[in-house]
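The freezer alarm interrupted the setup, so I double-checked each line after restarting. Inputs confirmed:
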Amino acid sequence: MMQEHSTERLVRAAHIAEFSARHRLRWLEALPWVAAIAAYFVFPNYLALGAQILATILFVLSLDLVLGYAGIVTLGHAAFFGVGAYTAGMLAANGWGEPVSGLLVGGVAAAAVGLVSGAIVLRTSGLTLLMQTLVVAAMLYELANKAHRFTGGADGLQGMEMWPIFGTFRFDMFGNTAYFYCLVVLFLCWAAARNVVHSSFGRSLTGIRENVGRMHAIGAPVARRKLLIYTFSAALAGIAGGLIAQTTQFVGLGVLNLERSGMALIMLIIGGVGQLYGAFIGVPLYMIAQDRFAEVDPAYWYFWIGLSLVFIVVFLRGGVFGVVERLFGRGKSP
Amino acid sequence: MVLYLISVGLSVTMGLMGFVNLAHGAFAMIGGYLMTSLMSRYNVPFVLALTAAVVVVILISLILERLLYRRLYGGDELDQVLMTMGLIFISIASVTYIWGPITQPMQPPPALSGQIDLGFRTFPTYRTFLIVCGAVLVTLLWLTLERTRFGAQVRAAVDNLRMAQTIGINTSRLFATTFALGSGLAALGGALGAEILPITTFYAMDNLIYFLIVVAIGGLGSIRGPFFAALLIGVSDTAFKYVAPELGAFFIYALTMAILLWFPRGIFGRT
Amino acid sequence: MSETGKGLATVDLCKSFGALSVANSINFNLDAGARHALIGPNGAGKTSFVNLVTGVLRPTSGRLMLDGQDITALPQAQRVKRGLVRTFQITALFRRLCVLENVALAIAERQGVGGDFLRPAGRHRAVIEEAYDVLEMLDLARDALRPITELAYGRQRMVEIAVSLALKPSVLLLDEPAAGVPPSESIMIVEAIERLPADIAVLFIEHDMELVFRVAQRITVLVQGSVLVEGKPADIAADPRVRQVYLGERKH
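Predicted 3D structure, all chains:
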């Protein structure tokens, strides 16, 4: 009897210890960062592309938070990316070229748009929600298009002048500074996102995705949780947009269009949804392939991206990350 | 009216079958390409070219339905969105490869070009023709889906798939037929409307939001809905652009949002 | 019981969808500590009643009282916070999450830490310990780290009860707790219900008459949205009207 009791306690302790350790860092998580630093030395001629990739990873990561964790299917995430890009861009074009504060203001502006639009669109679900997100982005697109005086309209916003970061690191023409600037910002945002995902709040989002009815039944304020993650995600997307604006010193209407929202979705799907790492795999794969092939023949590129998309959805669930994980047979709980 | 012709097909697939089919515009685009090239390159007469375009698109859609779409029936929206988006890309690449990147010219047949005198004002004959086509189609579709056995079966199958199967409806064939119907309508709309919505390689992508708006406002699974929605969008778009041209399409989007908040299932949506 | 006492009471509760009335002026009392069964033929409005009480549906008219307070207008989440908890007829769990987390999520909400986005969930030690206590109480501890999908259906139903218990209910509504469970496993569920803390008021909907008569102290029979009769199990079993509409139906 005594014996049995003590084994029970041991099992309990072991179970609880294993459960509590799930948020700990795994060594594999260092891989993207090692790769990013290695890429700097291996491909010194591609740093401009590299910086774009890093910023896009952040954008796709922000999409993963709403789609992969809270299960909100959106076709309008470019709205927040665009707001961030235009905000940071317009600040720099109008005499305030300080990068870090510009980025923060971009993030805040995007978060504000996320909060307001989220409060409206998240009341709906399914197809209606899809439409609402699409329409929000379309509205902003039209606004940017028509507000020619402030945004440059279809010609794009030009004349941005960036000051050195912290007054010391000047943006150089080879993209050294831009690359590390993007890398550091991405790292900070990733750390924040990772923390959120593993927090009680983050787990409750997973609960919402898995079974909304049950979340209601255990007394969770579902609407408020969704709005909060939507806003947080919008902020990250805005920062990503700001990064692109500051490093390329140009903002065009393309930051707000349906294609950008769609591409982000595609890159996320390629990498795998709801893993926080899908973006790190999908974005480089996609953007490097695009850089190689799209130059040769854009139509060719569209064909293959379309085909692989159909293939992934119909035959390969969970993206590259999911397949790799299945190959190694690790039954991780999501 | 073109919007209606295309959107009503989408309302059939998306509304009746509950499938988020973003590639719908691609079917319209292919219909448009087929007809314009048949007419301009091979001098096929208008009616024949139109029929051929619709038939070919229906065949394509049947193949795609069997190969791809049916795997995702009742699956989650995200998968449907992604797969159909993939189809859009494939269609863009394919038409660029076959027809090249240039916009396809569309010349209405002589009988339908020119102006028609309505007494109080003149009106392009072709547009009048389109309006008549649309009206006829509304009536026909409405009669088919509301009054025939086929329509009843489709609605039953969507409401309760398993029940429909138990009472002996061949749902697999039913869905294939419905899907083909939707795509055929798209092709018809794309082909007929080629004069007004020019056929370009990015047709499916650029016009997507309009199709979706019309369907969403009109209400899923409704035949009359998209008709009135297309009308509403057309009229208010013109009106707003007249009143406040500097805001462009902004109002349409705002209007769409407001309507969707008020009627999440569209104005004529089934509850 | 009076309307002001502990427990749950409905006053003239009505709900109709167009011409279809699923609740027809239901007056129902559930005292603290009660073991009360709600039975009736299919389509009698039993699950609709649970949905009305928990706030999934809004009543057309009538009032709902919990511990003497009017909760008719409260949203679902608020009712849960006041101790009104349900289980689902069709298992509603986070299927890909492990058993421990299913319970831990509920406890996190009850303790008000569900919205904490700074601290990792694994560091909320009090939540995890309490979740594990609930699992031990229902003999689910050995499956703590397995995802729901790997459990036998009977065990899944047990997790359903565990999640509800984790919310520390004062009123617990069990919607067909043994539905779909093979007979070999249903005894486990009966025992679990019998072991529920005595101070909880339990209302359960059930078709398994063996379970009903073994556990219930009182039985209410619902037919077409109206209360046909309410009483002690022995009286219900002997009531000719009940035999006719319900027990009789089961025989053929």
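Quick read of the result. Chain A touches chain C through 40 residues (CB under 8 Å).
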